[in-house]
Amino acid sequence: MAKKKPSGVGRQWLYDLMEKPVGRLYVLYGEETFRRDAAVGILKNRLVDPSLEMFNYRAFEGKALTPEALTEALDRPPMMAERTLILVRDLDVYKSKWLEPILKDLPDYACLVFVYDVLECKPDARTKLHAAITAAGELAEFTPAPPDELAAWIRSRCKGLGTRIGTDEIRLLVSRCGGLMQGLAGEIDKLCLYAGKTVTARDIEEATSAVPEAQVFRLCDALSVRDGRAALRGLAALEAAREEAIPVLALIGRQMRNLYTARLVLDAGGTSDEIGTLCRFRFAFQTDSVVRAARRLSLPGLREALRLCADADYALKSSRAGDYDVLRDLVLALYRALGKENAA
Fold first, then answer.
1. In whole angstroms, what is the distance from residue 36 CA to residue 161 CA?
2. How many CA atoms lie within 13 Å of 163's alpha carbon, on the beta-carbon side?
3. CA atoms of 53 and 44, how far apart (whole Å)
4. Which of these, 178, 182, 133, 254, lies nearest to 30 by C-alpha position?
5. For the whole model, what pTM was predicted?
6. Under a CB-based contact definition with an 8 Å cutoff, are residues 137 and 25 in contact?
7. Are 308 and 334 in contact (CB under 8 A)?
8. pLDDT digits (tens, 9 = 90+) for 85-94
9. Burial of 19 (0-12, 13-18, 19+ CB in 10 A)
10. Where are the alpha helices (DSSP H) in 114-180?
11. Is the pLDDT of residue 7 over 90?
């Protein structure tokens, strides 16, 4: 099979996996776990007859895998089939030097698949092991779908459930539930069951669960319009959902940095596109929202907000006070700081 450099893959890669000859080795990883798991499903459907699964399919957990067990599985030829499928989850491939001779001698009848689920994959092109991987097969990093592709997938999934969803509603759904298919799939299923034939904005608010990032985004937006009560309600919702304080603070800090960046670019005469690039936003509505909020705030106020977030981070990691007590104090302090010298 053709060698490929590690790069983000998506819909077309899955189409190719369904149509082209199956290779001997795949390393599957990345943030978009919905498509990563779809790839595993495609390989299993293509290679393994359910009636012969006990002979032609083996699955291992990486933590317990030994070189002997993997070698034994690879040496076992297929039973009444052309190929065998061997799946290994969460083996840190690049720290398993014992794999190199095994990968250099993979039998043609075997398809060996390493799936990174909990572990993070960090390909290192400088190593001999990387050379062995790319010579034998392919690394596939499943990155989030581009906005247009994601919107088409959402629309198609809703249609399959007998429900229509419009462009504005898709934008609201993504802003509320995030841009990863794995999280969206379950939310779409709930939403369509609740909404019936057509999805409305109210349906989305009532039937779906907001991801922490979206909740923090709204919290910060409330602060930008001087709505302290809404900001505190948003924080209370995060606490009720038992979200850990340190990741919540990290999200608040990131949003304050985004607002500060946007204000700097606006003051320098920059564009929304520049802001979106600097803040690494995937969706135009994220940029638009930050630009609107930044126009309401002053640079000194945002600079003070960054200092307050740093102080809160220190307090969370060194104080005996309740975690959410620190966050409530931060929200109140941000309310005061962002209200000073507001931009026209």
1. 23
2. 23
3. 9
4. 182
5. 0.82
6. yes
7. yes
8. 999 999 999 9
9. exposed
10. 128-136, 147-160, 167-177
11. no
